[in-house]
Task: structure prediction
Amino acid sequence: MIVSVASGKGGTGKTLVATSLAISMAEREKVQLLDCDVEEPNDHLFLKPVITDREAVSMPVPRVDYARCNFCGECAQVCAYKAIAVVPGSVLVFDQLCHGCGACSYLCPRRAIVEESREMGVIESGVANGIDFVQGRLTVGEAMAVPVIRRVKAKIKRDLLAILDVSPGTSCPVVQAIEGSDYCLLVTEPTPFGLHDLELAVETVHQLGIPCGVIINRAVSGETLVHEYCLREGIPVLLEIPLDREIARLYSEGVTLAEGRPQWQAEFRAVYTKIEGVVHERSGRA
Amino acid sequence: MKEVAVLSGKGGTGKTSITGCFAALASKKVLADCDVDAADLHLLLQPVNRQSEEFWSGQLALIDEDKCTKCGLCQEQCRFNAIRNFKVNPTFCEGCGFCSRICPACAINMQDNLAGKWYISDTFYGPLVHARLGIAQENSGKLVALVRQHARKIAEAKGCTTIITDGPPGIGCPVISSLSGADLALLVTEPTVSGLHDLERIIGVCRHFKVPATVCINKYDINEEKSSIIEKYCTGNGVNVIGKIPFDTTVNSAVAHGIPLVEYKDSPAAGEIRKLWKSVNSLLSAN
Result:
């Protein structure tokens, strides 16, 4: 089972939900937590895992063998990302623009391009309180998160409950992370910003055909903004976490809700039971 | 003309609420919402749309079933695993065009991709350039660059002295695009373990791209101990903390009413944001 935790808007509580769900469920079954927010991975601050394995994520980038190159310009021609420029006597490669597609080296008529690995991030794996932990970390200054996310996802163990913490937004890194999930939890807050970005996130998961449910964080009693929307769209509200200075304080110290307030564990397990119900019903239908 | 980019690393620290206030406080400015993924500034500034344009960017491969001989070369060579069973998955296709160039049957065409829209609007506080990247689209960095480019053009045409840019969370492509070449980055953080962790990374990005950075701690009194750790970290790294905004429920009410806080109500947070803008403005003029 793969459950991703996404949000649209940043800072709504994805990390809080992902880590607390993982801890709560670890009482019951073997859990894997994968932090796919590779630009700003935060789960490790709360789970404090012991990292036992590190693998570099690298991108194959072109390097020119000047003994063979005749500056014909074919490589620059085929590069869709304008990562190569050929000038008299030299081939300029802009590594940061390269997507590593391999077209230039394959199509070079003189086989003058070889590929070299360029490191752009790291995958770290380990264990935290019995939870299998994996996170990706994009190197500061690098632009492309997707290759790192892809490598994090390659670590998913299908026979475990895999919980994916996703970056905010709705663009390619988010879709790369969510794609293939059995269920997507959307964390929001009851403000116009939260609702607006929740709508975008719902559109995204619908487009991917993934069932979703909402968790309202910093809920204020009497505030019906998100509820009304969810009712209209037929999306279940699975849990509400109140706006509470003490919960905010626990978070600020790096303490998960499930550990700081253990009574919440049952609530998170109840959320998972509902998710399981939906996923099993769908797989029964399919 | 000077440009300040409001960034944070971590999401939800208060970038948009603060940018909205700056919009009300600054004189002769153009506003640029560079969070093209989940733009929210328009919810505070109530723009009236003046111009809307399509953003065409990148390409997607499309296999012509009639011509395809199912030789499998494209699937074998695609580094993005975007082709399975002789069909292209548009989510994974990065538009490199490799498949289309090597297909022996010339069965793969590259099609231009409508990746989003961008807008020029009028607000009560001045012109706003904003955008909406389509879901699952790439090239957010290019769209951000386009938004900034048009904000600059408008500022030049109208003789504006300041561009205020509301940036996206994270440290990747759209953040780099929002930051590069700006005169100042205002980094909004919060006194939490993740706030500090993410601040360290975004300070690294600013340093990498040689943009002067300055910090504001939002909701600093949620955890004053963490706030002083952040201050120490910043001082140790040559970055000034120029603002400390208290936790204040009027911030939420202002958002709920769709009005920048400083226009909505006088409150402790509003007072601090006014001071913050003064500091940012003098840093911009001194730069």
Summary: The longest helix of chain B spans residues 140-158.
